[in-house]
């Protein structure tokens, strides 16, 4: 063991000498490994960070949550012209489903509307995500409050002019003053603030709760009716845990078809969008990003491997005389072999570490600039280091074998 530790120390010394004595040549050769490790780990870190953000943003939602509406989240075999004729889901359909659906935790009714400006005295916040929704929404999404509360069933059903503010909206409008009980203006109407949500952080899709406001859906129904083209209604359904989702979706289809009085030979004129299908789609995209990243980065690693091999062949040639002397003094072939293998691995790992440091620096900068948590996990650090070592091992094996098989007499004569 001591022999191999000494061998490792000598190999490290040779690698450092190679860096010091041939700085430009060595650095150019290591550049391929550095770029390759940087590319792979940067892609993996970015994808891991994105995946972590998706998980965090969707953690408050049950993956079996159903979005019942006239549009589909994903591709559909139904022609577009036919989809455009689908009717919107109605408030009456929401109340009927709520009364008749089995194995259901909560059902809510929501409008998707365009972004608006919100005012308090002389202050205005623009581009606000407005969420008109019934009171059950809090049980479906699991909102957490900094202060105040969500509106109750009575306020929701009557369309009372109350509003819940996201953290950033409340901060921009009221700064350090107390928002609860204050009146703000939205849609030209006065709303009373009854709650402020806890700070959540930037959302994956932009419309995070920090920059959103929530108000009773019946307030907008009372103002604009149910047939306003600028509002897209959706019924949110949260089934009980552990049920058969296929059977549950079939029940939803059967109930809504019955409510709409559809005939047996008629196709469904609505879509059941399950959140798990959406997350599966995102997981597929993330997997493809990983795959493409590995392919692109693989070429850089291939070039880096050739660079390490080139360094090692030059190192063998420069130290031919030394190899001959070592072998004449009794050094075995495996000692010479391991000496050059260790050197190749150490050089490659140095290039990999440089690549990892670059990824870490960029991750810190992006986290601060983009307000997005770019994480370089320990798993990716270990993977990057392991890949660099593997590239060094593969690239150094042929030069190491060549060095170990040199004839000591010929090596000494060649080196003189």
UniProtKB/TrEMBL annotation:
Keyword Transmembrane recorded: yes
Membrane protein topology class: Multi-pass membrane protein
InterPro entries the UniProt entry points to: ABC3_permease_C (IPR003838), MacB_PCD (IPR025857), Macrolide_Exporter_MacB (IPR050250)
Gene Ontology MF, one: transmembrane transporter activity
The keyword Transcription regulation appears for this protein: no
GO CC terms, sorted: plasma membrane
Keyword terms, alphabetized: Cell membrane, Membrane, Transmembrane, Transmembrane helix
Primary localization: membrane
Residues covered by the MacB-like periplasmic core domain: 26-254
Residue ranges annotated for the ABC3 transporter permease C-terminal domain, each copy included: 294-408
Compartments (UniProt record): Cell membrane
TM region(s), chain numbering: 26-47, 291-314, 335-362, 374-398
Similarity comment: Belongs to the ABC-4 integral membrane protein family.
Protein name: ABC transport system permease protein
Organism of derivation: Flavobacterium granuli
